[in-house]
Design brief:
Blueprint: H1 11-27, E1 36-40, H2 45-58, E2 61-66, H3 79-93, E3 98-102, H4 108-122, E4 125-130, E5 136-138, E6 145-147, E7 157-163, E8 168-174, H5 179-189, H6 192-204, E9 207-217, H7 232-250, E10 257-262, H8 269-272, H9 277-290, H10 297-309, E11 323-324, H11 332-344, H12 350-353, H13 356-366
Parallel strand pairs: 1-2, 1-4, 2-3, 4-9, 9-10, 10-11
Antiparallel strand pairs: 5-6, 7-8
Helix pairs in contact: 1-2, 1-3, 2-3, 2-10, 5-7, 6-7, 9-11, 9-13
Length: 390
Amino acid sequence: MRGFICLTAHPKGCEQNVINQINYVKSKGQIEGAKKVLVIGASTGFGLASRITAAFGSNAATIGVYFEKPPQEGKTASPGWYNTAAFEDQAHNAGLYAKSINGDAFSNEIKQQTIDLIKADLGQVDLIIYSLASPVRTNPKTGVTHRSVLKPIGQPFSNKTVDFHTGVVSDITIQPCNEDDIENTVAVMGGEDWGMWIDDMKAAGVLAPGATTVAYSYIGPGLTEAVYRKGTIGRAKDHLEATAFAISDKLKDLNGKAYVSVNKALVTQASSAIPVIPLYISLLYKVMKEENIHEGCIEQIQRLFQQRLYNGTNVPLDEKGRIRIDDWEMRDDVQAKVSDLWKQATTESLSELGDLPGYKTDFLNLFGFDVDKVNYQADVNEMVEISGLV
């Protein structure tokens, strides 16, 4: 471990994690959804869950785009590499089309390579999931490299946070951003690149009539809003949501639609790096598990597909035109309990008040560790190939 990153990944653990998600989707029955799907950011988290749900919930052909580090002799790949290898093996064994492209999804080259693959193999796609989570983006038009920051706007933010490795609860103060920080964060995490993907795909004729595109966002509670929704990331998410309306206008002639889905707080590499969020998530997990409404990435996305996107009627939206699959997290009773626990949370009390073990397990699972049914004493081959890699 180094801070918010695990420096190795376990191939068999990642494989089992993927198989567990596939089995969950299969257990929930068929979804009358899209049949030709592109997932941009397909190798971990919500993107991986989207690809699994499309393939094994709707028997969809899927193309995944991601940026992952391949293995070297004696050095493991990044976890998304092993996740993708496992997914594509399972998909091919089930007779499903699955290919992928590894590279910088922000670049013109990867966009063109993806369009060429769609033209050659699928003709058109009817669902595009945009689930990129990168701290850095080079704009292909300007050549400028932008770096996002996690900062409040206007004034310093002070609250408590937890080191999830040690369980130590401490106070933290984050200094406010400047205007450049806001602009850079919007450039990386806003909707500009999503819009570029859709523009290029439409111009190339690879969007099917009625095509849907979905990007993922988060809002969260008052507890975290100074550093999240009202901070630099929040400005980027505002831009993402505005982009959805702009894309929908462009897709009118295809009878297509763009949505932003607001998802729940979950353990990801990105969320682990945001101060305050790990403590909030550990308390939230405790409450939602007690209420029997806890979800991980795959449960969230399966419900998004089955009950929102492809429910047989209109997609339910909030007053700002967003899909809300964070509805259970944001329930008044859940938030009231979390807020009460927050006030009591200390290093000494967190083991009783929160679910730090659940947080740690989910974090380790991201890298293929601490997964049930995996023998971590057995030798494992790190040199895993991705069968559908183009």
